[in-house]
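I am writing to request your help with a piece of structural work I have in hand. The matter concerns a single protein, recorded as an amino acid sequence and a row of backbone structure tokens. Could you please explain, in whatever detail you think fit, how the structure tokens follow from the sequence? Thank you for your consideration; the sequence and its tokens are set out here:
>
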Amino acid sequence: MPGPINALPESIPQFVVEPMKAGEEKWLSWWPGLATNAHARTSWRRADRRTVLVSAAGIASVAAITVAALNLPFPVFGGLLYFVGLAGAGVLVLRFKRLQRETAANVQQLADVKRAIDHAAIVATTDVSGRITYVNDKFCEISQYSREELIGQDHRIINSGHHPRTFIRDLWRTIAAGRVWHGELRNQTKDGSYYWVDTTIVPFLDARGKPYQYIAIRADITARKAAEHRLAEQAALARVGQMAAVVAHEVRNPLAGIKGAIQILMSRRPAGDLELPVMRDVVSRIDALGDLINDLMVYARPKPPRPTIFSLNRLLTEAVLMLRRDPAGAGIEVSVEGPDITLTADAELIRATVLNLLLNAGQAMNGTGRITITVSRHDDQCALEVLDTGPGIAPALREQVFEPFFTTKARGGGLGLAIAQRTAELHGGDLSLTCPESGGARFTLTLPLRPVPDKSAH
């Protein structure tokens, strides 16, 4: 049995001590570096003075060649084979060590590539059925889901409903056929907001050429899509401005004449005349059309904000009182939470924006329910949230609510939220929508505490 001579020093690891047999001393000079005459070193000396230190690699080589040599009938040929075999084993050991080094280098290179991709991209892998098997930190960060919530789910968990079923079906047909798919997808976060990703899905194929898993590498392009949307919006706004000028000139003036004529006719009718209700309805519709024209002008050609310093809490109190005077808000319970913030902005425009949000919430709840207004401050900005207890907004409609002329109401021009968002942008702020899982809709108005330069109307 191999055993140590006293205690081997830690500086010589992976060495064992073997007893030498008669005549084996001559082999020591043939294997420089492989074996060392142990009894020549006083600290390792044994009483029999016949020991040898053999490296771990040498043990494997010597053991293999010794077995082959002992099976030969002629010692001289056995010795020659012993030497040749030992040299061959040494070559194998060197090749094995080189392969180990190359493998370690390749593994390190793959680890470096993975670390770089994880740092720059949103990565997920799925099995052939679409179940998520891996997500990196950026996937969790942008989707707002934890890794535990995502693993085992399919990508419907982040489906925004924006893309038609045919689009998703074509995507799956492409990757199931073993081909790479590339395109843009709009996904939905846990809190209901949206984000866009430029996506490449690569199928991993088995020996038969069939996919056994997919890897999706995505880049966040939400900011780019928002910029494209703003450019398209500006182009549409220019067209709306041209149309508004024509409408204001060609329609508003004749409407005023029609309204005046009907009011004269009404004044000539007796109090109980059956035609009076019809005339009043006509006047009401003329007023609604006039309001639409005014909204159109405000949206297309807004006036630059005229900032003043005011208390946000006082402005909210005024907006709530105005809500109470409207039939849609008379029965609504309203609470205001958060600190009183001093704001520098156009008070009239901000009041109109808040009132629009409150009226929309009241109408969504059919005049009953609760509205919670929450005010908070973050560095040099303030946020005003208007949360209602209504039915919320369907996912397919959430992106359209700020588009001009979009409305789900039987009556109305669909410019209220578009004007509100435009007002926020003119102040250097933003107006956004989220729908909590518990229900309702939350509009968040973000404004700088002080005016932002170069935000005047164009």
Remarks:
- Confidence is low (pLDDT under 50) at residues 1-17, 26-49, 52-57, 59-78.
- The longest strand covers residues 194-205.
- Residues 269 and 276 are 7 Å apart (CA to CA).
